[in-house]
């Protein structure tokens, strides 16, 4: 119950925050749009899983019909899949957008914002279609116990999963587990790529930063810690939940405490992620802004150097005899070109 309340408050607070931003600015960033869909999916996961189980824990029996049971389980599976899909999309999108302009993602970096809405819609459609098979082997407890033909079941307090067909169950596991594993691998890869890009960016801009005597860590370090925290939270809750769910699907008549633990763990990431996303989003925004400021600083430094060099060149011309003007002009121009090229290279890398 406590985890349910925390999750609902966190997700609704995050959703209210982005809706307020849209009301004030009349537009949203692409990452804001992804986070809104993620928040809706997390909220639907918590409501469809926690509320009926809370009513069952209070002693209410047969309060959900067979059709209602199928609908609740269907929404729960769709929301879980969408939560994982949007988490993957957010990680991959931010990896592409934070990558340097000279990387292999430079063309996709320009096109990526155009496909965010399409990718979100495709993700919803994918899980809506795939999970149509799930209600076929879920029934309410009253229907289960009223039937003498069903021998294999897994009691889930108010509903039970029924193994009508081994082939159907195996097909469902393949359709559901494979996309989740694929998305999980993409999340781990993209998070690792972001950490590497931030580390490389921190190393490159050290030569233009002033010495900072403050013990506070850099923006890149804080963003790295935030990414690793979100990644480790996702991997822990999702991996453990998936393993327990697969065990319950393969072995019927499982321990009721194991079912309760599985339900509790499955609520972990949807309940905790809003608070992690709030801190992570603000930290990454500061890092992205720092990257943009760094590129602008490099361009400004290059332009200032060119102007100062021309001034220096004019002053030196007035002091040099006419016989040496051509030679000194050639040397200064070569030096100016070399240093200007250096700043251009540094700007492109960052």
The CATH first-level class of the largest domain comes to Mainly Alpha
Pairing-aware structural class of the strands and helices?
mainly alpha
What ranges have pLDDT less than 50 throughout 5 or more consecutive residues? 140-155, 286-292
Strand order of the largest sheet: 1-3-2
Radius of gyration over all CA atoms, rounded? 28 Å
Mean pLDDT: 70
Q: What is the CATH superfamily label of the largest domain? A: Rhodopsin 7-helix transmembrane proteins
Biggest β-sheet, characterized? Answer: 3 strands, antiparallel
Number of E-type strands = 3
- Beta percentage is under 5%
CATH architecture of the largest domain: Up-down Bundle
Number of helical segments?
11
- The geometry reads as elongated
Helical coverage, percent range: over 70%
CATH fold annotation of the largest domain: Rhopdopsin 7-helix transmembrane proteins
What distance lies between the first and last C-alpha atoms, to the nearest angstrom?
47 Å
Q: Helix and strand succession? A: HHHHHEHEEHHHHH
The number of distinct structural domains comes to 2
